[in-house]
Amino acid sequence: MATIYDVATQAGVSPATVSRVLSGKTVNAVLTKKVRAAAKALGYRANRTAQSLRRQHSKLIGLIIPDIENSYFTAIARGVEDALEPAGYSVVLCNSDSDLQKESRYVDVAVSEAMAGIIIAPANAKTDLSPLLDRGRAVVVIDRDPLTVETDVVVLADRASASELTNALFELGHERIACVTGPADVETSVQRVEGWRDAHRMRGIDPAEDLLVFSDFKVAGGQTTMQRLLDLPNPPDAVFSANNLMGAGMIETLEQRRQQVGLAVFGPLPAGAAVPRSCVISGTPGREMGRLAAERLLARIVDASTPMHRDVLEAPILPDTRSRPLA
Amino acid sequence: MATIYDVATQAGVSPATVSRVLSGKTVNAVLTKKVRAAAKALGYRANRTAQSLRRQHSKLIGLIIPDIENSYFTAIARGVEDALEPAGYSVVLCNSDSDLQKESRYVDVAVSEAMAGIIIAPANAKTDLSPLLDRGRAVVVIDRDPLTVETDVVVLADRASASELTNALFELGHERIACVTGPADVETSVQRVEGWRDAHRMRGIDPAEDLLVFSDFKVAGGQTTMQRLLDLPNPPDAVFSANNLMGAGMIETLEQRRQQVGLAVFGPLPAGAAVPRSCVISGTPGREMGRLAAERLLARIVDASTPMHRDVLEAPILPDTRSRPLA
DNA sequence: GCGACATGGCAACCATCTACGACGTGGCCA
DNA sequence: TGGCCACGTCGTAGATGGTTGCCATGTCGC
Questions:
Q1: Where is the HTH lacI-type domain (chains A, B) (predicted)?
Q2: Run of H or E including A150
Q3: A1, A66, A238, B244: which could join A98 in a potential S-S bond, CB 3.0 to 4.6 Å?
């Protein structure tokens, strides 16, 4: 591998000059030309490791998400990349699997790789960001609001959107509406439950707390929960699913059993889904969220004293058409 | 950030000893204890950047895939992680979007970050791996066989499985079977077409070349292609989709238009899919593929002279049940 | 001729690893 | 019992590749 010294020798200048030319500082036009030619001839690419060591931070951004197989999060990854790639950063996508241990290992890697910044959707409320914050690393929290720590935050309007979805079920004529949400220690889970409750309260109805289930935000959880609900002595006539994957799992069960209930799903179903007759779905602007989070992060990397932002993105109900985008 | 010097001072030893303790070389037990205590007290974590610079390679593995929103590739990512994480490596997931420019940018990053190895599903046949191979970096190619270059390769039995799927449609009584595949410059695309042709030949039938469509391996491509096929004067009575996303798009169209045709899909449909009545689906062992690729890579990192392997994984037809795994 | 400014080179620096050398101890032989 | 040799263990210092503060040199203008 050609080093900056090789280029310097070839061009007949010092390594410092090569460095200056390649990082765009003012250098005599003749030398600039010579350096450029030498670099090209040798196929020189700067050693990022050495750069990172000297500069004390790399051109890597960590993106830690709890489920790589959820299209919502992959959409976020896309958005993050949209914004970061033009700025010369590379995204390191890490799947924490909602596992605190795995997550903290990735946080450690982010620290010891001297990554320029981190965008993280915390596994749950116990996620520890202090290794990053203590060292003054740029951090943006997405999707799940930690409430306590002070970072930039980009989240969805979970509660409002959940309420809107539940309300739409009422308007379709449903009366007994179950709520299937994620783990109780995840902020989005509880917020969406609150939205489900809100919709009841707005109509002066008591939410059917016996129909509130804490599941796992995954396909399998949606499947088994729907089975359990359908087998109840007094089953619900509609279900609100607090995320997309559980919604897909529920449909899977409904298809298998050839049954129908009303369904409201937070987040778009995958393409080709067997959408039930009575069904409302909200869009989740994942890509937008990723883009915004990346912009906030870039601003903070450039100037650590940038004031904190807390962005709340709408997740409106999608028009009833079959052509739902994947994310 | 505490450095190895801080730990050395605190423990009253030289930095070299600290390094030796932390990398498990034999050191006097008393000193070992002191060093460990000092490291813990200071919250020391080794600076990976400096390590990488010194060792000439990092603990990062690049995984370059053409579509992050395809569950097949995310399953691969999971498998790769399964195998690499216990070995102390971190995966850098890069989405090339089937774009040669983006892809080559990521290859450049891999080189200049001194990544320990690369697993890549090439965007198409023009993918250039020479920057990696010339520098002797460990490379494993997955999913799409470059045929020419010499690397470890892990692929699916594209042709055989495509043939099996098409044949299953014949056995369900279909006669006029369209084939919708990906871009013509992608190896898996053409292999799967060959499989579709094989199934015809085995029955002494001429494949309906007018029903062969090169599309994009994406949902939208499946949707529009299915529309076009259905609107033909002499439409097919079944369609073979050469990947999962296009299959989902086709179902989307069928649902919208409330039409039915036979369908064979290479790769599992997403959960909750509206599976047509006459439908066969093959499984794609993505996670397995990822795991295997990672193992091959690790072997090559340890010993660059390991003989090349070419692994071909079966993609068998799934039993006809609704409970299809996501990948 | 002197001062101001532009420009490029020297060398220190980033954090870690490791070859080499120094030192100490223990054993063996005279 | 003393001296020498061998071995084991730890410290010193150089190397990894690129950046940048500081200084020397050169040029231009007054």
A1: 2-55
A2: none
A3: A66
